[in-house]
Amino acid sequence: MEVETDTAATVPPPPPPTDAIVSQLPWIEKYRPKSLSELIAHDEIITILNKLIESNRLPHLLFHGPPGTGKTSTIIACAKKMFGEKYSSMTLELNASDDRGIDVVRDQIKEFAGTKKLFSTGVKLIILDEADAMTADAQAALRRVIEKYTANTRFCMICNYVNKITPALQSRCTRFRFAPLQSEQIQGRLDEVVMSESVNASESGKRAILQLAGGDLRRVLNLLQVTIAPSPAQSSAIKTFVHFVIRHIYIHMYAAFCQMGFVVHDYCSPHTWQRTHLETLWTNKQCI
Ligand SMILES: Nc1ncnc2c1ncn2[C@@H]1O[C@H](COP(=O)(O)OP(=O)(O)OP(=O)(O)O)[C@@H](O)[C@H]1O
Ligand SMILES: [Mg+2]
Question: Relative to the alpha carbon of 75, which ligand is closest?
């Protein structure tokens, strides 16, 4: 029997993030629900999960549905409810489509799940995100892994396309479908964030964001954040683009006036460097 000391008891949980760190987080993380009650929509799913956790009867889970509907947020909130402060030592989050293959995933699962804790009771949780990107062989291997560690581990597979999960894996899990969020459901959260970030958003602007998002709350938050606060990289890209556009407008206007026979310098006096640059470009017929 493999035995390990109760790491959950000896390793202190990470310190809570400071205000400065929180304020720099992308809004999708800053506003990620911290508990099941903070999730919007999917009330039935939340009720069932709450009951299963409270009665210690959590089965293996399969969450599926389009992006940005709360699948990852829901399982993280479940894990926090189940493990409290021991959340990080009792939960393993893996990308099931790991490029390095199922062997790496299997080794990580084996290391995490294959050890018994001396003093802790209850099961551990393994979250397998992007499970639909796994090959059929990898899914077959995962089936055996799940069986082997069922005694002390629960698996939660998450995917966008449930039809890409083999029937054998599906039948080992309780399935929950996360439907796209309704505009009315998103509206409340959007208003909350707009208010808490003091965003000057018009009603038509908010409507446009809701329409563009198509039921994906992650997209709503990302759109809102980039709309009001371009990052340094975005600012620099926008600046380059604006320079590019202005330069082309200048050149085309200059060319048009020259073609019409005007001597542009008679009408305006641009900076010398601009004039020289435009004349050179015009002479060489570059970019025109
Ligand atoms: N039902 C929800 N309630 C509250 N917030 C949500 C909900 N769904 C999405 N969000 C917000 O959108 C962000 C992304 O959600 P999440 O990561 O849970 O989506 P997902 O369904 O796992 O998407 P994907 O399939 O792309 O992984 C969260 O951080 C949260 O801010
Ligand atoms: Mg996710």
Answer: 1
Domain 2-177 has CATH 3.40.50.300: yes
**b/e burial code for range 171-205 (CB count within 10 A of at least 16 → b):** ebbeebebebbeeeebbebbeebbeebebebeeeb
> H-helix or E-strand containing 92?
strand 91-95
Closest ligand 1 atom, residue 129 Cα: 27
Q: What is the pTM of this model?
A: 0.75
Q: CB within 8 A of 147, min separation 6: which ones?
A: 172
- How does pLDDT run across 152-200, given as a tens digit for each residue? 899 999 999 999 999 999 999 999 999 999 999 999 999 999 999 988 8
Which residue among 132, 218, 219, 222 is best mutated to probe the pocket of ligand 1, counting the most ligand atoms within 8 A of its Cβ? 218
All structural domains of the chain with their residue ranges: 2-177, 184-226, 232-283
pLDDT digits (tens, 9 = 90+) for 25-74: 899 999 999 999 999 989 999 999 999 999 999 999 999 999 999 999 99
Residues 7 and 85: beta-carbon distance below 8 Å: no
| Token pair recorded at residue 220 | 């709503």
